[in-house]
Design the sequence.
DNA sequence: TTCTGTGAATCTCTTCACAGCA
DNA sequence: TGCTGTGAAGAGATTCACAGAA
């Protein structure tokens, strides 16, 4: 999910698979809930259910961290919370800046899960001078002019981009130039960053489109149609240009009626 | 990324890999941008760069859809926009409800990419009676009591959950009972749903934690430390319970100083 | 006996490298 | 000649199934 070439380009250092890393937060959340209920130990089966994965996967994941369980018993909840937190780097404090305080940026700033678990909102930054000084989630919004000094002064290495798509790359460049090496991008754009900078993106419309794909297939199967052919395309198919008009095949059930040959 | 057992459990129907489906929206976005600039054709190399992937992957992805390119030339932009839209089911209209109109729900409602590209916000729903009737993004907020009738009357099959974690499962159950079969979950909870319902989740704090993991590793490598051992754990490690206190190994560089043996 | 930890098998995804069409 | 489409190889992730510790 990290953008393109950026992703762990050099040494794989300690061999903990990316897919496992992506699940550790899930386990951590489930464990934290257990911890709050003062549950002392948990089996791989129980924890897996709580985290929404299967137990073999969970055990395999944990095996990359070390042997933290007890055969015949399970895992010590508190101990595992600590180990995973440490592995994820949450035993230290990560100052974060959010750039772009529109609807989304404000929502992020107010998001509770932010403050807890090792992350601290160091500053909210927006390009609109009218926003400057206005308090959002208890913090005064700072103007973009201050971006570099905020990053430097607070030792920020993680930035969240919640600006419109058009501004994202420029903001990204400034963040990176100022020393940020991890970026969480909510803007619907592909960011290009130098080697060594991690980008993860969260994109509402992509998620919806993936759901639509599966939804469409369900509908197709229900009515006995070929899954790839929608019931009634609303838009007309554009004619192919002359250069590309011949010899198309497609995987069989391919818009036979609508498309020109 | 769909939650657990739910994910495409039955027939794989037309064999288009999940990883490919997840990238189609990316290609579509890049193609739409080219289309707006009236670019007629594009090579796999150019398009791949614009979408942030490599060209071999892109060509392989497209090969699952059919042979839509022209050797020696590239892909016809308009034509490919149509084919991908169709494949994703975006040539039809998907009514969507958003449940939970807090900061995040409002941000989602105002998000432009929603309205375009086949999705239409059919209703905004919130449990707070004080919200009812208040216009958000041009739509009056409806009360949760109306949830079932809204779903049924509008033929909604996709629901977005932006409620607090505590309410999410309950809202999910009601959505599913009313006929929703695809859910986009922004609440930090694992949702359990019956077979045949797709769930995708978007989780800010998980993304941040993954970034923190990589960030920590970078810092560790820089200073020549073992990557898995953080500089200075801020929290004390909890002692293991007696039952689990012996024989731990861990993958070598394992908190030797801080942890009790 | 119970439940973890893990090799081995399997499945999926990515990348390579080149045949073949325009 | 240039670029797509795709088998084949390679890498990674998941699942199986069971040895072995408590």
Sequence:
């Amino acid at each position: 999910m990290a953008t393109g070439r950026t992703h762990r380009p050099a040494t794989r250092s300690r061999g903990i698979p990316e897919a496992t890393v992506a699940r550790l937060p899930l386990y951590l959340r489930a464990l934290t809930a257990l911890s709050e209920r003062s549950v002392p130990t948990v089996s791989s089966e129980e924890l897996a259910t709580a985290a929404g994965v299967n137990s073999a996967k969970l055990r395999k994941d944990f095996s990359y961290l070390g042997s933290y369980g007890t055969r015949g018993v399970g895992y010590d909840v508190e101990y595992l919370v600590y180990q995973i937190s440490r592995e994820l780097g949450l035993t230290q404090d990560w100052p974060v800046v959010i750039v772009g305080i529109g609807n989304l940026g404000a929502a992020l700033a107010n998001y509770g899960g932010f403050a807890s678990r090792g992350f601290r909102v160091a500053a909210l930054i927006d390009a609109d001078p009218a926003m400057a000084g206005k308090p959002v989630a208890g913090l005064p919004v700072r103007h973009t002019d201050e971006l570099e000094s905020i990053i430097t002064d607070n030792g920020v290495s993680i930035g969240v981009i919640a600006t419109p798509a058009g501004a994202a790359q420029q903001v990204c460049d400034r963040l990176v130039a100022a020393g940020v090496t991890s970026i969480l991008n909510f803007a619907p754009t592909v960011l290009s960053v130098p080697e060594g900078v991690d980008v993860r993106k969260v994109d509402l419309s992509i998620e919806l489109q993936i759901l639509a794909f599966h939804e469409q297939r369900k509908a197709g199967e229900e009515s006995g149609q070929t899954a790839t052919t929608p019931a009634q395309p609303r838009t007309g198919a554009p004619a192919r240009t002359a250069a590309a008009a011949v010899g198309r095949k497609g995987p069989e059930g391919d818009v036979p009626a609508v498309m020109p040959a």
Q: What stands out?
A: The CA atoms of residues 221 and 227 of chain A lie 6 Å apart.
